[in-house]
Design brief:
This protein has no helices and 11 strands. By secondary structure, it is mainly beta. Strands 2, 4, 5, 6, 9, 10 and 11 form a 7-stranded mixed β-sheet that branches. Strands 1-3-8-7 form a 4-stranded antiparallel β-sheet, with no helix packed on it.
Amino acid sequence: QLQLVESGGGLVQPGGSLRLSCAASGFSLDYFTIGWFRQAPGKEREGVSCISFSGLSTNYADSVKGRFTISRDNAKNTVYLQMNSLKPEDTAIYYCAATALPKCSYYVMIHWGNGTLVTVSS
């Protein structure tokens, strides 16, 4: 069974950090572009960051540039999202997703995880 499983979410104070993990089972992430998306209550799902299958190309939403870092460890079949300087507006369910295409868009993702909740609050 092909699965993506996110972990690492939780409650953190503003200015704090979390590292999210996206682990794949049933398939290899080696040849997939991986994206992180998030959905806050009452809002549409939005793209946060993406990484190419090689790891050489990354991109970020303007709202997280300079604070979030995406990386991958293909040997562990896992992609990470390091989130620093967290703000209350980062509160959302974070999802990872995979596509075999060399592009990053909600519409081309074919595998999705169930999400992990990140709450930034004092």
